[in-house]
Each structure stands twice: as structure tokens, then as C-alpha cells.
Give the backbone structure.
Amino acid sequence: MREFLIFSFLIVFASPILAQSNYEFNFKNSDSLNSYIENNNLLFHPEDIYIVKDLESYKAYTQTDFFASPIILVFNAEGKFLENIDNISSEKKLSNFKKIKSKPKKDQPVLEFLTEKIVPYETGKDFQSKNEYSFTFVINWLLVTGEQKSMIIDILNEWYDVLSRQKANGENIRIILLNMDVQDHWDLSPKWQNYVLENLNRS
Amino acid sequence: MRYLFIISFFLTACYSITAQNEVFKTNIQLIELEELKEEIFESEKEYKIAFIFNQFCPASRDIFPDLDKLYKNSIQKNFELFIISETKEKNKEDLKDHLFYYGYEEPFYILKDKPLLGFLKKTIQSICEGCDFKEMGYSSFIIFNKNNEVVVQTNYNHTEEELVSILEKYMQ
């Protein structure tokens, strides 16, 4: 059974391709997230920040095309996935929602697939699923360090800022700032933590 | 310590929350070149800054966040800003999207009678006869004083740092 688990774990982590190359995964906790947000002036509203619930959820998440950062996943009012927005298309699409593709992409998980795997960073309680928004924007982000950090922080603030501006102007949207790092609160043994990191950082 | 951290985190977030709740409006006006000239010269402000802008020009895009910061942080507002855009009238929505994305509230002017060729020449010569339009490009600007005398005319030889430093002096 254990071998099977290890094998499936390897398969799971072999596939994801992150937009940010050379990112070194490390387990994070609330202190590391708080200090990263504060030290880098990320203007995130705490209520909009989400983290992945547990290792099982994380595994499922890594198997999808959604596992990339920094990127925005857009879902329509029915929770169907419409498209990815990156820093090339963000200006056009985030300032004018008419330019977002209206036809859902085939063979992609729905929003619920994602939301049942994440929890609000502030409370840790299960995601309150209300499909009452015209669009849900999931901004994937990581605690990036190194040369790319400043550029990525600017992009994240830019995205969050423009979406918040849309919200303030009356657009009925939901913003999910999904931190994609592996979390300390999953309470994995040191052996498992090492194993997860080895596989994540290898891919 | 943990509580102190959480409190400081919330305080930091406060500014962004306030900013996010404000309704944002872009400020684009369609105008004839002659009307623009009148607006500049009839302005009672101590300094009148006419800034040439093109949203697809990297130099314009690079300098604009600094200009925006100066505009938003200015206390005395002893100046009036006229951002003259080369955007075509029919592409007003594209400019609006650009300004919305970056949160630029500055007054932008799209010229209704924009010439097919020689936008810079015609526009610059119209508002400043003595200015050397050949040395000017997008992100160049002219600063007039209250008496409509040219105080500064920048050109494409100025570095971004030099341009920002000039703006800092006049956008108080």
C-alpha cells in the first residue's frame, strides 16, 4: 500500500509545469505568509486569501492545468472554466470583461473541483460556495524569491488592484487569491515533508 | 508577538481596502486642437504641463507610473496636467481600458482633428511655436508658466530619471 502511495505520488508530481521556473517549494505557515505579504507590500485583502486544504487536495490540484503561477483562472457564473489570463493578456481582459472568452473550455474541471480543495487563509473553514457571481477570478500565487520576485509582486498587485477596482465599480465578481505553497498545517511527518518537497522541486 | 503581527497585517491592509472601495473613473475628453490650446492657455494654474502620450510607446508606459504617483501625491495642485494622447477617436475604449487597468485618473485628451501624419509636429507647433518638435517624442512634455511662457521643453535625449526629476519640481 505504501509503495502504491509513493508511486502514485511520483506520478502526480511529475506532470505539473509551473510558469515560474526554478521555484523552490518549501512548507509555509501563517508566519511566513504574513511576513511575505507585509514585507513585499502585497496589497491583498486578508478575506480574499486562500490556501490548499490538505495534501490529498494538493495532489489532485497538481494533476490539473490549473497548477501554474502567476496566472488567473476565470470561471463563469455556472462555475465553468473559461480561460487563463497571464500578464500578456491581463490588461485587455481584466479592464474589460467583454473581452473574456464566453464559451467554456471543454474537458476542464469546474470551479467546485477547486473550491472543495481550498480554505480561507483567515479562518481555515470550508469554502462557502455561492454561485452568485458573474465571474470568479482565481489568482494563483507563490512566495517567490530571487530575481523575479519584484516583477511578480508588481503583477500580482496590478491584477488584484484592477479586479478590486472592477468590484468597487459594481461588477459582481469574486476574487480568490490562491496561495499554491505546501502548508505546515497539513501536519505531515518530516519524512513525508521531505518526500513531497523532493518530488515537487524535481518537476 | 503573533497578535502584534496580525494587527500590523490588518493595518497594512487598511490602505488597500479604502482604496478598493472607491469608485474609479477614467478621465478622457475628445477635443479639437484649438480648444485644447485655449484650455491650456486660459488655465490659471502656476504651471501647465502638456504631456505627449502614446499607450503603445514603451517610453510613455515606463514614465507614467511615476507621473501618476506625483499626480496623486501632489498636495498644492499648483499645476494643471494635459495628457495629449495620440490614440484615435475610434480607439477611445482601448485607451479607457488601459487607464482603468492602471488606475490612471489624469485628464487625457484625444484630439478630434488628429492629423493622419505629423501628429507630433502639428500638435506641438500648435501649442508651442518656439518648440523644436523634431527633438520631441512620446513622453516628452512642455511646461508653461502662468503667463504661458515655456519654462521647460523636454526632448528624447532626456533620460527617464531626468524627466521624472523635472516633473517632481513642478508637480507640487
About this structure: Chain B has one domain: 24-170. Confidence is low (pLDDT under 50) at residues 1-19 of chain B. The first strand of chain B starts at residue 28 and ends at 31.
